[in-house]
Protein 1
Amino acid sequence: MAASWNEAELMAVLLSREVRDGEISACGALSMIPAAGLLLAQATHAPNAELIILSSPFMPFRTSRQFHYLAQRGDLGLFFVSGVQIDRHGNYNLHVLGDPDRPKVRFPGGYGGGMIYYAARRTVVFRTEHTPRSLVERVDFISAAGHTPPEVLRHGHPSKVVTPMATLRFDLEAGLLRLESVHPPHTVAEVVERTGFDLGDVSAVGPTPAPTEAELATLRGPVRARMIETGTYADWAEATLGAGLAA
Amino acid sequence: MGIPYVPVLGLAGTDLLARRDDMKLLPDPFHPERQTVVAQALRPDVALFHGLRADRAGNVCFGYESDNVLLAEASRTVIVTVEEVVDTLPPEDRAGTFMPGILVDAVVEVRYGAHPAGAPGAYPHDDEHLTWYAEQARSDEAFAEYLRQTVFDLPDHAAYVARFVPEGWGQRGQLRLQAAGD
């Protein structure tokens, strides 16, 4: 069966399912897909979720420092973050590609993420590219570490990585990312090939439950409208949600 | 701030921590079974800011929320350029980030002093110029050329404005504050 949603819609739906009712959930700057996912969750299964979308009207604080304090207190249930590279140990890189002393490319860095990855109860990493260069054996620079010794103070860990092809789950005990499910029409073999590290035993991995009619209708209707009327990535919502359906 | 170091939640296991000697992972003195990063305090000799407006007492209004005051509190000398200097800041200028004059050593009126970055409340980022800057920054030679054209070959800031700031850039006349939080 041909998919009747685009990649951004699929990822927004999958991210929305990570939001728990009654928790505080947040995403950072330049996070259109998580912003849509947060609003979708609130409009469906998590009506009592409190949302924080930085650089939008869904930002209750005057400075990001106040948001950081909330996370440091352990009050942030879920954070969505993106990284240029993510490795099998759940480390992510938002600093540089190549030799850190002579980088090929420099990215914004990890000012917030280097704390929030440890402070949020759960962090879901989203990446719109699933390739051997984005999912790597070892990141070029660890901006935030997936796993730390037990004596290090931290409130939470990475929980999942969501890409357009698959969902990976962080196995806290092993400190490793495992393949949780694959989004049809992609196959396990394809995901294994396009992942730059060993995913281990994938024999029991099944398909990701597809977006439901209700999820898609809410995303394309009320969520899209709310993003436009509140000026929350309005141009992106208008152009993306309900448009350009994949063949 | 005047304190020797601060505890930091996070950063353990990162290359940032591994590559810097001004941050260390140490036992919490109150809960020795726990470890946190501590970062040595920065004590800059000089901090430079660009604000929206200042008055003759050195009070500065930035027109947006930021943590600038923290940096000023940590620095030995504070110099602020502003879009305009007035006799006394009006009370509404205390919205947003407000830097009291007691922290400020010098104020310099430099219209378009933030260009090609933006000055919230006065003018936006100049995307065209920043795109050029980003291209020039890709190699040392190109960047030297950028500096030659925008800094070294120009007699003063007025020449820079005439050459690089688009005609009528930002709001004309009276500067206005943006809403808090913008």
Protein 2
Amino acid sequence: MEALDKLKAVAQNPYAYASNLKQVTDKPVVGNFCSYTPEELIVAAGGIPFRLFGTKEDISMADAHLQAYCCSLVRGGLEDALKGNLSFLDGTVFPHTCDSIQRLSDIWRLNAGFPFHIDVVLPVKLNTESARIYMIDVLKTFRSDLESALHVSVTEEKIRQSVKLYNRLREILGEIYEMRCNDPDSISAADLYHVIKASMVMDRDELLELLTALRDDLKKNLKDSTLNKKKRIILSGGICNHPDIYTALEESGAEIIWDDLCTGTRCFEGEIAETVDPIEAIADRYMTRMVCPAKHLSATARGENLVRLVKERDASGVIFMFLKFCDPHAFDYPYLKKFLDDAGIPNILLEVEEQLPSDAQLKTRFETFVDMIR
Amino acid sequence: MADQPIAKDPEKEKRKIKSVSKMKEIMTTYYIEAKTARETGKKVAWITSGGPVEFLIAMDVIPVYPENHGAMVGASKMGVDLCEKAEEMGYSRDLCSYARSDIACSVTNGGPIGGLPKPDFLVCCNNICGTVLKWYEVAARYYNVPLFILDTPFIHTEMSEASRKYVIAQTYEYIDFLEKQCGKKMDFDRMHEVSKLAVQGLRLWQEVLDTAAHKPAPMTAFDAFFHLALIVTLRGTKIAVDYYKQLRDEMNQRITDGIAMVPNEKYRLLWDNLPVWYRTKWLSDKFASHNACLVGDTYTSAWSGVMDLIDEDNFIETGAVAYSSVYINVSLDIMLETLKKLIKKYDVDGLVMHSNRSCKPYSLGQYDLQKLVMKELKLPTLIIEADMVDARSFSESQIETRIDAFMETLKS
Ligand code: SF4
Ligand code: SF4
């Protein structure tokens, strides 16, 4: 599985990958923190969208700008920028999500010193026609902001090509997810995590080749899913930057077979229509895709979706995982839990700071949880 | 002994603001009306502090402000208990303490007034934070009532044309929503009246705040925190207009009579962020003991800071722009400009920033603002780490030491 090895290598050291890339191509690398980044337009402008996950190093420089009651993604992201770890970035794009990211954008613009900085102030509610019109306007502005930042012209043709590419990428990622859901032995959850992570930072043309090869490799070796006797679990939350939890869970007798993560299914769900105006089509994907908790679809959309996912994916439990100090996720947690409890679906919460709990602690918690599941 | 009236200190009596009793009376009447709305057949809407209440008033709906209620919870020192209840319900301690205490009040009918009246519908404007969106979703599920969201896109540099169009379109959707909820048409003449009263109220409120530019200041930011309640809850009514006229006149009279709120006012300070509701007295005494007076703040002027954008004859369209431009819906650069204006207007010697762990949009970025203020204006600054309602995040000894040290540098 050569493709998998390559993807893993990228995921394990994305900064090195990006720095190397800068030696061989002049494609601009565009940092971002969120699945609401209109990546299609960045690719249409010739750039590489590069997802940032924060640092695992100790925070020292970001402390001068951010209080301790701010999530580790925001603090860690700024730390990396201030330390010069992101010197390969040509610029950064900040879609509007939560209050912390909103302020990070200001602080970043004032201190991080990258050549360009673009705010994409998307609507917060995604369920009305006026929000849709506004979203389209914002995407158009983003397109012209990219044009001036990168000195290129983002033609409709280029956007259409990029949309096609994204549809392919997302379709294949979806297929790989499906395969693993049906046959968890086909690829380990930790490996799948690496695939997803690589897909958020790589040159997207190169990514398409690797993903296609990986999908074909996996297809050849598919087995009967009933052979895997582990409990099937869904992971729900914001970002997951911790491959270790997949392994710890596997050792406790369970498998993550699907997720409801910003760094997971939210990356690839939803197709973009290729027959209509491409910018409107990009907006419509956002208007129909399941929302993250910083956006509004209805007061109960995420709860209903999660319960549906559990049934659809034949799962028997949910692990919530989000960062400490993350308001949007913390606000949704009690209600999502209630929806699951009412449907008789066991669930636990893992609140993560910079570091995961120790291996031993994690295993004990997972084992207790797995025992709860009949 | 007990029967003998305690001799009042005439010096202190002189300094008390006489209008306070009127204000308490108005707020009590208001809350009684809100709590008995069911009996009087009126509708109740919960609305965020930055939301366009004028439309509710014009539709004869009683607006209720969970944030104002949150402030009452804090001031009556019931915050910790209620916050803990919310935590037991699964709400993280890291969430906004207004939201936590309010959610707990809903479920337990607890708090200073035994819970807020049940809403018939909810109006959430996110011009202050993303927290209110989540909080109102919680309320929408709990009470099972309709939720209207007025989405005011954040302003990083300037308000875009797209955003202007979007907010205006939503204002019309808001009117439709209200007509549906109330089963009657909007009376636009009445709406015009209400807008005029709202703008008048905002102007008067600003005039009240402006009196503190006088040296010595007839009132402090702590007084402004208290008197803010009406411009939030009764904006657009004659009651608010009359009250602020009275308050402004009282303040001007104090200036004529030479009454200062802090005797021997020597140092003038500006406050940033929400108050520490459960410690306003302690903080004001603490600063006063150093002859320091907090003469202004960024919080209470947030409501009037944008009134110049409003054309009362075209409230629907200009109000939408004004609502989008409030103090914390803008970038740090724009906030810095406002800060500078306030620093100049009140001619202050220092800036005190409350780093409020409840309110991320207000507090994150303060370190940068602090540096910019020190660099550009050479103004001494102090940061206090606390929380507006949850007293567990208030360390008296630490804060006392920091205030003392700060005041020493000011004096030297
Ligand atoms: S983890 Fe939560 S708080 Fe942090 S950036 Fe994401 S949504 Fe915002
Ligand atoms: S205190 Fe801050 S976070 Fe809480 S409701 Fe007010 S603006 Fe929002």
